[in-house]
Structure formats: structure tokens, C-alpha cells
Amino acid sequence: MYKKMVGFAVVFLFATAGNTYAYDVPMVTYKDVADQAWEKDYVYTLSALGIIEGYPDSRYHSQEALSREAFIKLLVATAKLDISQTSGIVPTDAIGRWSSPYIAAASERQWIDFMVNEAGELKPEQPITREEVAAVVGKYLLGKAGTAGSQWTSGEWSKERDERMFADSSKISANLAPYVFYTVNRTVMEGDNQGFRPKSGLIRSEAAAVINRLIDIEAAANKLEVTGFYAIKSSPAIGRMPLVDNVAMGWSHLEYDTEGTAKLGTDTTTYKIPEGYTDVVKSADQAHVHKDLMVFYDDGKKLSVFLRDVPAQKAFIGQLVTQLGDPAFGFSGVSLDFEGLMNASDAPNYLQFVRDVKAAIGSKTLAVSVPTDYYYKGYDLKGLSETADTLNLMAYDFTHADSKLPSAPLPLVRDGVERALKQGVPASKLVLGISKQANQWITTNGQTTTAGPSIDLVEKRLTDPNVSLTWSLPYFLKLIHYQDSSTANEIYYEDTQSIAKKIWLAKVYHLKGISLWHMGNFTASDWDTISKR
């Protein structure tokens, strides 16, 4: 692994078998944000979302006053506005500044008009006050409130003022009061025993808290579908069917060895119809769950050949249609999980194959699982999303042994989602894949090896009182340390807390839902969190 400094953040460049795998995503550790700091989770969450960056000295400078332009940048980034497409007027003293695109976006939406003085100046470097922060946030929120917003500014806001009874309410600027109290009403900001302190400055740690609360409030209203992959060893999860909306039965695979012919395999390998399948089908039907037949294949080289073999594709699709029509299963659709396409030249062929599948299955639904596009270039994400009903983004398996990079660090998961959205995949079709797994590094006599322990073994290890357990930031994964005779062990684990954070991420980006690989791995605690999505 090679490390390159960009500001203070590490960019991972992984060289493997002649290929360079690049994750140009900051993984920031802040030297001045202590483990017990109240703002720790707020700061690292915004960093994982790419909203804040910190300073080149690897510090966040939590206690420093925040400038007007810095807060405007935070809000514009939170709103996910395209700063390259804006027609807002930039105040005279902000023209040419680093912040001018953000100021233009805020100005266009009239969030900051009250900050501009008679000379047309914003004074962007001036420390922002609490009432200014509350007013900007209030304007942002009320802009989304429609008719209710008009009622609020017309007089309803005064009820909030009277109920709060801040000792210093009279010090809040009259023209800003409706917006300030709307922010208070939405619980984004609050007062203390001294009042609201409208003229006090806002430090950087407080700004992180404000933005987090704003994101949380907006995310909470978004609903998610849950797709469970019932595959491999998922029989213990048969009783969890009522907690998912869709179930993808991992009961088939592509068989392709001879040119001109292919088969939908259902009786060999891991992906086959299991004994007792009728109980699973019955359980899904009783829970009124949408049932897909999952088709798996992971030999990228053979898949590339298959995608140029039209007769083989026709034979496979014909058998798939027959299987989908079998009344013993009552499948509602198909879920394709064809992995390993690394070359861009395969993308048009795979897209055409998916189109052919969609045309052949008629009214049944089609879901397509895809990897993130860092080095798997054989998937036209936009084209696939236009064809399929759902695109399942497998935002995991980023693991890199030498650097101890685990499978699904939150900053990389977020970046994978953003890359898909920027390619034109609509959020309403995108599902965030969550893989319940653990990545272990074992060091003996200075030599380190890796392992992928089973979930059962990890959960058993967690009951050992000698295990050290921490919440690993910036990864947002559980980190387990323990000593086993002469062996030191580190395990990054996708536990209930990290799963909750990924569910939250899916809501932040207004995604269609989440998927669970695979249902049998998720613990009772995980399912409790999933049920509260």
C-alpha cells in the first residue's frame, strides 16, 4: 500500500496483481477530538459524509469560532446542492473567495439575505452568531414547509416564543425571530439556563451538533424497504420474514462451461434449492413478502465470454422463465447477482443481457446487484437502473489486508452511494447492501495473517471479559482486541451499532431501501434495529 497525503487525509492506493485499486476517500482521524469528547460522533459523522474536512494539521479545532462563510458551506453541503449550477448574487466582498459558490447557492435561495449590509457586503470571515445560524437553518427548513411555512411566519411562531420563555428572547432580532424559533421548534437548536444567547458566537463543535441534528430530523421521515437475502445458512432466520419487505432466495446459479449452451442450476453448489424449501416459501407467503429467485455467478472471466454467447444466453433465459413460472415457488421476480466484471468493454454486453432478461420475464420484477465502481468497470449503473426495478449496491468488500482496511468503512460506503447517484442512478431505485461480516488480523511473532471468522464465533468471543471493545472511528465499525496465548488479534465487526449507522445513511440519501447479506448472519439485536427502520 502507498500513502499520499491530501491535506491531512489519507488516500488509499492498493496495488494488487498489477492493478492499482484507488479509494480516493479521506479517512480522517482528528488529533484534537478526544475519545470522550461530547462532539466526537458529530464530527466524525460529518467527516464520513464528506461535509467537513478539518485542518491540514490533522485537527478539527473544535473550540474555534465558526465564520459565516464556513457555516454557509456546511449548510449547502448538507442540502446536497450543486454549486456549479447556481445563479445567486454573490456579495461584493465574497467575490473570488473560496466560499463564493456556496454563498451564491445560499443567496439564490434567500437564506442569507439578512446578513448582507447596506453596502452589499456579507463580511464572510466574521464569526457567525447563534441567531444567525438559527435564522439560516430556519429559512432552509421553512423553504420546504410549503403552506405550513407561511402560517408560521405569519404569526404562529410567536406561540413558540411564548412557550420557550427564553430570558433573553427580547435580544433576538425582530426580523429573524420567526426563523430562529422555527429552528428551535424543530429541535435543531435549543437554549440553556442563560437563555438562547442570540448574539453569542458558535464554535465548530457546536456547528457539528447543529448540522447533525438537522440531518437526523430530515432522515427520520424517510422510509426504507428491506430486502433479505435468504441464502447459504439462513434457515435460523425463517422466523424473520415479517421483518422484510422482499426476500431473495439464493437458490440458483448460472452454469456455463460449453459455448452455445448454459443452464440455470438449482441442484448443485451452495446456491441450490434446499430441502424443506416449502417451509420457507410458506413463511414468506404468510408474511406477504415479495419473493425473488436469486441467480448467482462470480467467475468474471467466464461471465465475460457468456455475455458474448447469444445462444447460451437464450438457453439460460428460457430456463429462468420456466423456473419463475413454477407455481410451487410463486416467485414474484428475479434478483441477478453476476459478479466479477472488471472491464468497461463488458458493460454494454451485460446491459443488453439484463434488458433481454427483463423483456423475457414480463410483469415480474427485476433486481440487479452491482459492486461499487472503483475497479469493477463492467457495470453501466445508469443503464442498469433504467432497465431494472431495483439496483442493489454491494457497498462492501473494500477489505485490504496490509493496511487493515475493513470491509465496509462508512466513508467508503457513502462515497460508493454518491458515485452511483452521480452516474444517474435514481435514489428511488437504489438499495444499500449491508453485509454482516467480520475481518480479522492475527499477529504472531511479528507476522500478520488475515481471517474471516464466522458471526457465531465473533459473538461468542464478545462474551469474553478479557476482550477490549471500541467504536472505531472514522470507520464506524466495532473494533475487537484480544490476546490469545502469543497471538494478538484485531477484528473489525459489522455489529448492531454499525448496521444502524448504515440504515441511517440510506435514509440520509433518500434511498429505496437496504438489503441484508445474508439473513442467517444477522443477530437478534440486529433484527431489532432493522425492525425499527
Automatic annotation (TrEMBL):
Domain SLH, residue spans: 26-89, 90-151, 163-225
Keyword Signal among UniProt keywords: yes
Chain ranges of the GH18 domain: 224-533
Record keywords: Hydrolase, Signal
Signal peptide: 1-22
Origin superkingdom: Bacteria
InterPro entries the UniProt entry points to: Chitinase_II/V-like_cat (IPR011583), Chitinase_insertion_sf (IPR029070), GH (IPR017853), Glyco_hydro18_cat (IPR001223), SLH_dom (IPR001119)
Keyword Hydrolase: yes
One annotated GO molecular function: hydrolase activity
PANTHER family reported for this sequence: CHITINASE DOMAIN-CONTAINING PROTEIN 1 (PTHR46066:SF2), CHITINASE DOMAIN-CONTAINING PROTEIN 1 FAMILY MEMBER (PTHR46066)
Record-given protein name: Glycosyl hydrolase family 18 protein
Species this chain originates from: Paenibacillus alba
